């Protein structure tokens, strides 16, 4: 058993709204003795459940904190998370480091060059062949490596599926091809819809839990899209007799065979 004392709200703290409602983020443990408090979005937490939930988001690669309760996409400011989770000095340091690393990975598409072992940023996201300027200068010839298998490039280019190295494959496309069908609990008349989709805006793989409506907000680009027809939600909603929990007028989009490239400047 952990010797750490449980975090506990002070019910006399005028900056915290304590309530008698159930903790809505107590998804791993039960029996927290702290009073419950309401976040700015209206959902109820304890400092321990909030800490665990935010740690879960950071482990998933998030750099911001979104409520995520049903139909709630409110982003909590870090200052609110820090206060409401009663973060210790050690937790603050860990959270802030993880947030910075995740933000860097999200906004700067970089990998380690297999030749010089330095970080290289890809300029053209639709081409797997990437030139390393340091290796090119050191070797006296053009040195390019595969963004996918991280080996020196073989074969023609530009290409966005694979190079000619043995075993090079697009794991994301393999996942889209082989993932099981979603088991929608609340969306009617939708069968044989893949449980994993590539976001139509940025290409990030997103999984549907099957419990909410058919729309989902991508954690990377923050664009909401329809998991069934793969249209941006604003476009899907233009259909007559639109239903959040029903089949789209255009039907179910087929399994994706390519990954959309995020055009960040558009």
Automatic annotation (TrEMBL):
The lineage of its organism: Eukaryota, Metazoa, Chordata, Craniata, Vertebrata. This is E3 ubiquitin-protein ligase ARIH2. GO terms for molecular function: transferase activity; zinc ion binding. Residues 14-248 form the RING-type domain. CDD domains: Rcat_RBR. Keywords: Metal-binding, Repeat, Transferase, Ubl conjugation pathway, Zinc, Zinc-finger. It comes from Fundulus heteroclitus (Killifish).
């Amino acid at each position: 058993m952990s010797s750490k004392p449980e975090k506990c709200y002070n019910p006399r703290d005028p900056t915290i709204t304590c309530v008698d409602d159930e903790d809505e983020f107590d998804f791993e443990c039960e029996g927290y003795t702290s009073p419950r408090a309401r976040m700015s979005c209206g959902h109820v937490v304890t400092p321990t459940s909030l800490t665990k939930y935010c740690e879960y988001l950071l482990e998933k690669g998030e750099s911001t904190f979104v409520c995520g309760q049903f139909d709630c996409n409110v982003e909590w400011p870090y200052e609110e998370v820090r206060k409401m989770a009663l973060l210790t000095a050690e937790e603050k340091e860990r959270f802030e480091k993880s947030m910075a690393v995740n933000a860097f990975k999200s906004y700067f598409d970089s990998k380690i060059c297999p030749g010089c072992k330095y970080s290289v940023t890809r300029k053209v996201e639709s081409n797997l062949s990437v030139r390393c300027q340091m290796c090119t200068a050191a070797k006296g010839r053009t040195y390019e490596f595969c963004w996918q298998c991280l080996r020196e490039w073989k074969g023609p280019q530009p290409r966005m599926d694979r190079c000619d190295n043995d075993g090079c494959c697009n794991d994301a496309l393999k996942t889209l091809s082989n993932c099981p069908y979603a088991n929608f609990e609340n969306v009617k008349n939708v069968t044989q819809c893949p449980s994993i989709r590539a976001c139509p805006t940025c290409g990030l793989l997103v999984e549907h839990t099957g419990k909410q409506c058919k729309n989902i907000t991508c954690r990377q680009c923050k664009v909401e899209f329809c998991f069934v027809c793969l249209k941006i939600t604003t476009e899907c909603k233009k259909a007559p007799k639109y239903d959040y929990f029903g089949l789209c007028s255009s039907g179910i989009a087929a399994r994706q065979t390519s990954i959309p490239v995020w055009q960040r400047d558009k």
